[in-house]
UniProtKB/TrEMBL annotation:
SUPFAM superfamilies: Band 7/SPFH domain (SSF117892)
Annotated segments matching region Disordered: 286-360
Membrane topology: Single-pass membrane protein
Protein name: SPFH domain-containing protein
Membrane is among the record's keywords: yes
Record field: compositional bias (Basic and acidic residues): 289-303, 330-344
Amino acid sequence: MDPAIPLIILAVLFVAIALTAIRIVPQARAYNIERFGRYIRTLGPGLNFIIPGVDRVNSKFDLREHVFSSRPQPVITQDNLVVNIDTVLYYQITAPKAAAYEVANYIQAIDQLTVTTLRNVIGSMDLEQTLTSREEINTRLRGVLDDTTGKWGIRVNRVEIKAIDPPPTIKEAMEKQMRADRDKRAAILHAEGERQSRILKAEGARQQAILEAQGEQQAAILRADGEAKAIERVFQAVHANDADAKLLAYKYLETLPSLAQGEGNTFWVIPGEFTEAVKNVSHAFAGDAADRKPSTEKGHGGEEGGPARIGAPDPARSSSAQAAMDAAEAAERAVADARDDVRRAGAGLAGSPPEPRGED
């Protein structure tokens, strides 16, 4: 037998034992070593040596952050509604020894702890709070899970609620409520728009009425100023021309017919100054007629009682004077008739028979 063969065998055995004694641990990994079934130490990243045949690797852990998504869990709210909630956990192993020896299956333990904690938290809230308080639920879940999983060598970094699914009937009711809220907001906005529109229209009508009133006021002022100036000019013209009583009485008579021109004038009161104006006009034209009356002249030889010589009459003056006299007499008759009518009306009201009307 060749003596080199045992040496070769010994060399192979030494290499094999050396290889089994070397453990290379990757970065962010941890290996738990047991010796004769008892935990000895945890190997960190890098080159490590163990005793072959005595030490063995019991468990390997990844120290990076992990994501665990649980299946939808039915949870009952405070108002007795069943909702399905999905959660997402972000955790990290901080103590490999505790993760291996403090809990049998840390993934299952975390899942069940999340479900029980979630039911306790949601059970104290109604549906409305559950749908609007995700941040509060996440904070409470993280606090409970972090306190419990700390002794397992696991740190829960974040807990997020992925979905909250209420029952189909509740979804329909929520959709109807949302549509009602949107319709309500739309109606409010429409009513607010109409209100603003009416306010603006009212403001415009108000400004228009103010401007029209101001325009009418200015027009009335201008018309009044014009009438005042016209009256002032007439007054100045009358005083400048030194009008006598005869002219004023005649103008007074010309103005009287205009008092009865209205459509609703069924009763006309003749002022007392009317008779005085008629008398003034009558005396005025009577004086003119006396001045124009032909005078008797002396006879031949200078004796009185001779045949009178009548001068040639003026046709224009005699016709105007006669017309004035006729107008004055007609006015006096109208005044007398009016007075008689008034007396008869008063006697009829008092119950006495009216007096007979005399001849003019």
